Amino acid sequence: MNKKVYCKRTKAFYRIFAAAACSLLLVGCQAQKPDDYATNQGYSDNSTVSVQNTTGITKENIKVGVIHLSDPAEGSGYTYTHDLGIQGMQQNLGLSDDQIIRKINVDDSDAQKTRTAIQECIDAGCNIIFSTSWGYMQTTAEMAEQYPSVYFSHGTGYLSNGKNFNNYFGKIYQPRYLSGIVAGVNTKTNKIGYVAAMDSSNSEVTGGIDAFALGVYSVNPDAQIYVKVTNSWYSPEAEKAAAATLLDMNCDVITQHCDTLYPQTLAQERGVYSIGYNSDMSKNAPDACLCSVIWNWSAYYTSAVQSVLDGTWDGSNYYGGMNENLVSITELADFCATGTKQKVDEAKQQILSGKNGVFDGVIETNTGETVGEQGKTLDAATITGKINWYFKTVHVVE
Questions:
Q1: pLDDT tens, position by position, 88-142
Q2: Residues 6+ apart with CB under 8 A from 343
Q3: Do 285 and 104 contact (CB within 8 A), yes or no?
Q4: pTM to 2 decimals?
C-alpha cells in the first residue's frame, strides 16, 4: 500500500475514534471476556484440526493478513471501516506496515479468488488472517483445516471450529435500535427507507432492519419502514437504484445496510434526511446525515492479535456490543428535531444496563405471526442466525 495513502487513512482513524484512546481499547478488550455466541457447530462438526502454535509469537515475527471485499481507499463504507480497525490494531500493538498484508477487491462470491487471496497471505508468512465478509466463510473454514498452525478469524457468518478458526461479529442491533429512534422522531411523512444488501434469509441484515424498526416504533408507531433489497453485499449501481426508488416513494429518512454512500448522497440531493452505517457518514452528507451507526473493529482486532502474541488464543467466538465499545452511534446532527437526543440517551442507558434487550417480549411480525415470549428477550443464537422475519411495520419493496 502506498505509504502516503496509508498515512492519510491512519489520520482518518484518529479523527473518527479520537474519543477512545488506543491504550484504553487494548485494556478494555482484555478485561472483557468475549461472549461465545456461536456454538462451534457446522463445519467444525468434522474438524480434525489440532492447533500446533500455542506458545505465542514475538511481536517482530507476527504478520497479519486481511481479506477485503472492496478497496478501503474508497472511503466510509464496510471495507473502509474494517480497515480502520486494522489500522487501530496496528497502532495499538506497534506493528510496522510490512507486518500487515492486505488483499483488496476480493469477490466473496468467488471461492477460488478467496482461496488464492488467503493462500497468498499464508505464503507471505501471516500467522493470523481476518476474512471480513460473509461469503468468505466456507473457504476460510477449509483453509483452517489445511493450515492448523495459522489462525483464521471470519467476520459475520456462523462457522468456527473452536481451535484455529473462530467467528467475530457484534451486537449492531443495539445502535440500530437507537438510530431507529432518531428516524422515528425526525420523519414527517412517516415513510422511512432502508437499503438492504440481503433478503430475509440473512439474519444479519434482517435483524438490523427489525431492530431499527423497533426503535422507530418505540417513539412513532405510525411510521412505516420500506425495504429495498439489492441481493449483493457490494453493488454500487444496485444500491444507487434502490435508494432512488425509496426516495421516489416519499421516504424522508433513509438508512442502509450496504457499502456505498448513495443513500446518503442522494438524500442530500433530495433535501431529506439519512442515517449512515459502518463509519461516520456525516462528512459525506453534512446536510442530511442525522447520525451514523458505526463499528469500532479495532476493539476486536487488537484483542485477537494480542492473544496470538501471548499464546492465549482459545478459539472463542467474539460477540461484543456497546458495552465493549465495538458498536456505537455517532453524535447527533445539530439539526435533529428537539427531543431526539433525550430519547436516544434514555434508550442507550437502558440498553447498556441490560434493561432493554431490543428484541424483548412478544414481537408481532408483518405476517401477523408472533415471536418471543413475555418477560424474555431473544437469545444471541436466535438474533444472529434465526431472525428471518420482519417486524410488523416493515414492507419489502419489489
A1: 999 999 999 999 999 999 999 999 999 999 999 999 999 999 999 999 999 999 9
A2: 181, 185, 219
A3: no
A4: 0.83
Question: How many beta carbons lie within 10 A of that of residue 99, not counting itself?
Answer: 19
Q: pLDDT by residue (tens digit) across 224-242?
A: 999 999 999 889 999 999 9
Torsion of CA 137, 178, 241, 287, to 10 degrees: -130
- Write out the three cell numbers for 174: 443495539
- The 3-state DSSP class for residue 133 equals coil
- 3 state DSSP class of 155: strand
CB count, 10 Å around CB of 377?
Answer: 16
Pairing assessment for the beta strands 165-170 and 363-364 based on DSSP bridges: unpaired
> Which ranges of the chain have pLDDT less than 70?
1-54
DSSP, residue by residue, 64-125: EEEE-SS-GGG-SSHHHHHHHHHHHHHHHHT--GGGEEEE-S--TT-HHHHHHHHHHHHHTT
Closest CA to 318 of 298, 334, 343, 338: 298
Give the span between the Cα atoms of 359 and 386, in whole angstroms: 12
The answer to whether 71 touches 287, Cβ cutoff 8 Å, is: no
Q: In what side-by-side order are the strands of the sheet with 128-131?
A: 100-103, 64-67, 128-131, 151-155, 165-170, 318-320
Residue 54 has a pLDDT of 64
Q: For residue 214, give the nearest of 390, 396, 398, 397 by alpha carbon.
A: 390
How many angstroms separate the CA atoms of 184 and 228, rounded? 19
